Amino acid sequence: MALRLLKPLITSGSALPQYSYSSRTVVAVPFPRKPRIQVSSTTMATGSSASSVKIIDSHLHVWASPQEAAERHPYFPGQEPTLNGHVDFLLERMEEAGVDGALIVQPINHMFDHSLVTSVLKKYPSKFVGCCLANPAEDGSGVKQFEQLVIQDGYRAVRFNPALWASGQKMTNDVGKAIFSKAGELAVPVGFMCMKGLNLYISEIQELCTEFPSTVVLLDHLGFCKPPINDEESLTFSEMLKLSKFPQVYIKFSALFRLSRVSFPYQDLAPLLSQVVSTFGANRVMWGSDFPYVVPECGYRGGKEAVTSVANQVPLSASDLEWIMGKTVMQVFKSHWLA
């Protein structure tokens, strides 16, 4: 059975819910519940009335409005957005949800033109940190571009999207290794976006981590691993867990709507979160919304609240939840948001 992988790592005293995948709807026997953990930027369920722990979103995007795109920040041809991804809209949603800061990941809508995101980082230096997009051009020009984005424009992370590598090329080619190595030298984490399936790229990630152990890795969206329904998916999730042997690897528990097989609040992800926390530790796991894509799915606030709901099903301690909701990403980026 594919779900046998999940059973041993559930927190002691918790029963594994029984899932039926005969249809998209999943029926579960609830976990024994602890009192609900209420998380906010001012009260983090630590027993005190106020806490300095902040809520930080480790994964979201912003892009130009149509007017801005026409005037100064053009969209990449064929990548015109259909959602509102303007920073003003984001800031409103963050305030409503009680989120203090975020890591902005360069969107494909602007490809390697980082001017829009750079303008947002400069306008809100204490609110946002930037993750640029690696340009794997075969002439190596992307290595210099990456270095300039970090040194001159202040980007603090870089994203590897394997779909941008030339056909037949891997992220472990000369250009990929040059950028990955330079990221380690600059103390800049590398995020991996494995939308087509972690099984296609995990060997490349393992090779890069082995060869360049000083480079921090962020695995976006749980490696796009869904609750497994067959042996192949169980094996991929198991291989993802084995990345914990590399101490530089961190997991983004992000874009829950992309991972779950059921509707909000995505409680079929509880066994996966339990195993990830058991294997990596909560201090290597971080929440991310994937704004603005989360908005039509469950709303930005819903994307945040779903994590608490899933965590209560495991159940996780208040301390673990603090790490996932902000402390981990703050630790990776040297407490940038404490400024």
TrEMBL record:
Assigned keywords, A-Z: Decarboxylase, Lyase
Organism in which the protein naturally occurs: Erythroxylum novogranatense
InterPro entries: ACMSD, Amidohydro-rel, Metal_Hydrolase
The protein's name in its UniProt record: Amidohydrolase-related domain-containing protein
Organism lineage string: Eukaryota, Viridiplantae, Streptophyta, Embryophyta, Tracheophyta
Keyword Protein transport included in the entry's annotation: no
Keyword Lyase belongs to the record: yes
Domain of life where this protein originates: Eukaryota
One Pfam family hit: Amidohydro_2
